[in-house]
Amino acid sequence: MSDVVNEAEEDGGGSDFIRDIVRADLQAGRHQGVVTRFPPEPNGYLHIGHAKSICLNFGIAEEFGGRCHLRFDDTNPTREEQEFIEAIQTDVRWLGFDWGEHLHFASDYFEQLYQWAEGLIEAGKAYVDDLPVDEMRAYRGSLTEAGRNSPYRDRAVAENLDLFRRMRAGEFPDGARVLRAKIDMAAGNMNLRDPVLYRILHSAHPRTGTDWCIYPNYDFAHGQSDAIEAITHSLCTLEFADHRPLYDWLLEAIGVDERPRQYEFSRLNLSHTALSKRRLTQLVEEGCVDGWDDPRMPTVSALRRRGVPAAAVRDFISRLAITKSDGLVEMAMLEHCIREQLNVDAPRRMAVLRPLKVVIENYPEDESEMLTAQNHPGNADMGSREVPFSRELYVERDDFMEDPPRKFFRLGPGREVRLRYAYFITCNEVIKDDDGEVTELRCSYDPETRGGNAPDGRKVKGTIHWVSAAHAVDAKVRLYEHLFNSEEPPSGDDFLADLNPNSLEVLPQAWLEPDLANLPAGQTVQFERMGYFCRDSANDAVFNRTLGLRDSWAKIKGKS
User: Fold this and answer.
1) Is 277 considered catalytic here?
2) One domain for residues 66 and 201
3) Residue 23 counted as domain residue
4) Which candidate in 277, 304, 349, 415 is catalytic?
5) pLDDT beyond 60 at 373
6) Domain range holding 373?
7) What is the SS3 assignment for 514?
8) Which residue, 183, 424, 434, 520, has fewest beta-carbon neighbours within 10 Å?
9) Are 338 and 420 in a shared domain?
């Protein structure tokens, strides 16, 4: 187990260092209330790593009687789309959270940000730089070598203001000039070496159209947007820790009185997957997956399409420790949370994924009957349903062996098994095609065993599921495995070489009990003995496997 998982088990989803800080701030009167925010960039779909931040920000606000804003960091129009804005809102709501009237965009504040930028120029704390990107990078130095001042660093305030206003007016092409903060080119923290605040981008914005051709970068928009919205606790993942000195410097430089504070926590790293928006975008754009909501993806929309309950995601996040140390969380832990939820909530149905035909020779032809089946063996309140039974059935091919070993308790020549909710049957004859493949079983049934019990008290060790051939509905079934072979996929550009070629298996014709024809898209059920499956939201003739029934995590943790 990874350290993060162990810490999560010990913590049990209770207090953590961020909640301790919030509690102390309120007790000391530093804030009259708690205001947090979730600030995604609308340049892709949310993944389960974002779910950790969503649950933390919205959860803390709810626990302490505050509010959480949803604010889009829409400062890069070349990568942002309305599709992503809408998808993010759908995902946050699906997870169970609501921002109420507090839906905001960094673009709401473009004019205020611009005025603050002019104020920095007037105070001698920002300047317009003409260095090309490559030269600017060379001037920054390295972790072991101090940077050098740009030759444009000492421009007069009036010249900087004139150039910056002309940048806004659209006089210069993309990349010709930038606005930089004037801090310290010898700073040990690279983020303080005169960072870029504004760049020229002649690109229409999804919300502001062509009103702007200069856009603030993340560091200049983020802290200032927090200040405008009176955010009290700005919660970020650890990669932003080195940005906190700049966050604080900018707030002080523009003269914000009530300053938010930034706190960092460990991001979620999940085994056998990639939680990098850049990598997920590459998977989509190169056709390695079928879109952002491909059920193999770790996106929130993919989890939903695969049939994962939102409550299971929230439960999973609640078990993670909120710490300042990164670690790897095993996928099995997430799968355990999903199984725990579905085991309680998912109704049971019968489906045959790899069919083998069974003919019950002593059952009357052209007749059928309805048998009672429980919707959930552990929850009588879920009631029961009627399933049709007839002379010809389908059973799982794996439930038959022509020469079975001693501990194989399913069908074989001369062997008797119980059909779930139905009768005892015995295999009398095996039919094969010219290639020797088994195509059909000829069986007999005991009509005295209706409901699965024998009046004479005899026992059978095997119980298998089935569907009536005359009444079954057909569907395509998709089976999913981990997207990557390695527990920790490579970090370099060759990460695609680690893709699991067996991450998707398509079964072209499964047979389902007729009740499943009416299952709503997006609903998950348990196919008895086979796993949990969800009717696909994009194609109602397809069922996606959410998970199999085995739970190795529960065994490892000593759970039932």
Assistant:
1) yes
2) yes
3) no
4) 277
5) yes
6) 351-465
7) helix
8) 434
9) no
